[in-house]
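Table S2 (text version). Query chain:
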Amino acid sequence: MGGLLLLLLSAIPSQAQTEVTDSIVMALDSMYNAMPDERIAEGRIDSTEEQSSLNLPPSTLHQERDWSKWTPDPQRALWLALVIPGGGQIYNRKYWKLPLVYGGFMGCIYAMSWNNMMYKDYAQAYLDIMDDDPNTASYNKFLHLGRQITPSNQDRYKEIFRKRKDRFRRYRDLSFFVMIGVYALSVIDAYVDAELSVFDISKDLSLKLQPAVIGNSMINGSRSLASNAIGVNCVLDF
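Corresponding structure-token output:
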């Protein structure tokens, strides 16, 4: 390749050779200046010192995230909270809220399972007491020691089992809606917490209460103490 280039240059006049040589040198120089970006993209330059020695722009240098100045993105916190319960709190780095979120979920799940079990038991007992089959008597386990269902009190126990069946079914459904409320509250908390992460809570934001004299009227060219009153002045600095 180099011999072919020399052969072509020998066939060109001397003045034209100079112009061609200068153009080749400029082209090689521009290619050399573009090489550091390509070498970084290929991973051949890793250290920060070597990148600084090449006078690269700051965007190409590796910069570590400063967690003390990091602020969460409200939209990302919202989507994480929607997809993963408690994910928004983890993204906002408010780990102390996780026991509240997951505790609420676990409590609602336990309430749903307990009320559903009681509803099934009382529903079966109500069905057994309503039929005429003496072999189906699951309602006996709900009776106090020594109590029996007789024709005289059968109607009263039917009403008791019916009310308890409906009550535990209502509690089960209510537990489900409470769990949805806990989920919605965790999503709202994650979004609002991310939005308020840039709220000014410095010492410049303060509320001060101090005594003050209210009223400043003039009577015959002089101030009158009788027209004044002592009160409290509220000062808000921000």
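Notes on Table S2: Helices lie at 2-10, 14-41, 48-53, 74-83, 87-91, 98-130, 154-195. The radius of gyration is 41 Å.
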